[in-house]
Write a structure and sequence with these properties.
about 350 residues, alpha/beta, Nucleotidyltransferase, domain 5, 2 domains, 5-stranded mixed sheet, 11 helices
């Protein structure tokens, strides 16, 4: 790594090939280092790296990603200022185009892959096998890859034109229902009173104007109100959850139709805080199963997926070992597209 590091002791020379995977998100950056056999030897975490506009963009990126890698190198007993990786894969929230030159400035590697967060989420979720991942945090999208290595996506258009089924979209629909009830042209719903109580606003109209000045991730944090209303048998809230599940299942069908034959049984991993809602998750699983797919929880985290991609581009297929517990198993809001990386449901 090209940035200088503070050394409190002499580190040993690098022995054998090392592989690097990075998941650069909106609230945190995570790195894993593995040896040539797939054993994870280093794990690091740093700050967010998606906001790279403005005069301090480069410094912010280098500080977040560089600090994360340095921590992983210390953990691996490797000199961060001298290491050259055999292969590195970086997956960045919001796309890779505006971050690639900074990443190449920071990291030495013989082989590279710089991609978006959905691809590494899929690779981690299926351990590199063909399939589809549906990500529903603040925003939403689906991404898939077949046995031929072809990829396709659905959704991920942003909050103006898409993000159906995401937490922001769910709150937006709840606000609409509350406004319609308040103005006398919508059905009665608990969402009106619950939203006003949670925000301490007097009317849905004043809440609407307040939300116009708030970040989308902040608005998305009110999504649990829809869950609470649905659990109290509010028909409008129940309908909103069912519609969100249907929209996410629709994404699956879009990706499946582009990549897989109708008779192939396709694994579909689901990730993001929206799926913490049991009602929505059950609706989603039922619809996806009925379409001939196999819904699964993610098997590994996105950063582990990035590490697998690093091995893949070096034409090596390994089974990762010694993976930190935090990078195994089910992932809620830790995986997201356009999300705040926070629990939203």
């Amino acid at each position: 790594m090209r940035c200088a590091t503070q050394k409190t002791r002499r580190l040993p020379e690098q022995r054998g090939d090392l592989y690097l995977g990075i998941d650069g998100g909106q609230s945190a950056t995570t790195a894993l280092i593995a040896n040539e056999n797939g054993r994870v030897v280093g794990h690091g975490q740093g700050g967010p790296c998606n906001h790279i506009t403005g005069p301090e963009a480069r410094e912010k990126f280098l500080r977040a990603v560089g600090g994360c890698i340095e921590q992983a190198c210390r953990n691996a007993d490797v000199n961060a200022s001298a290491v050259c990786f055999a292969s590195a894969c970086c997956g960045f929230s919001g796309g890779a185009e505006d971050k690639e030159r900074y990443a190449r400035e920071l990291i030495r590697s013989r082989r590279w892959k710089i991609t978006h967060d959905a691809e590494i989420a899929l690779t981690g979720a299926t351990k590199g096998e063909p399939g589809i991942v549906v990500i529903a945090g603040t925003g939403s999208m689906a991404f898939g890859r077949n046995r031929q290595g072809e990829t396709a996506r659905a959704g991920g258009w942003g909050y103006i034109f898409g993000d159906e089924g995401g937490a922001f979209d769910l709150v937006r629909r709840a606000i609409r229902a509350a406004l319609q009830f308040e103005e006398g042209w919508g059905s009665e719903t608990q969402l009106h009173a619950r939203l006003l109580a949670a925000t301490q606003e007097r009317t849905a109209d004043t809440l609407l104007h307040r939300f116009y000045g708030m970040p989308r991730a902040e608005i998305a944090r009110y999504a649990p109100i829809v869950t609470e209303a649905a659990e109290a048998h509010d028909a409008i809230a129940e309908e909103l959850l069912e519609r969100s599940a249907a929209a996410l299942a629709w994404y699956v069908q879009g990706v499946r139709g582009q990549l897989f034959p109708p008779d192939e049984y396709v694994r579909v991993a689901y990730a993001g805080g929206v799926f913490d809602n049991v009602t929505l998750r059950c609706h989603f699983i039922r619809q996806v199963t009925a379409s001939g797919c196999d819904p699964i929880q993610p098997r590994l985290s996105p950063v582990a997926g990035a590490l697998l991609e690093a091995f893949r581009i070096d034409d090596k297929h390994v089974e990762l070992s010694n993976v930190p517990e935090s990078e195994k198993g089910q992932f809620g809001a830790a995986v997201n597209h356009g999300s705040s990386d926070q629990r939203v449901l």
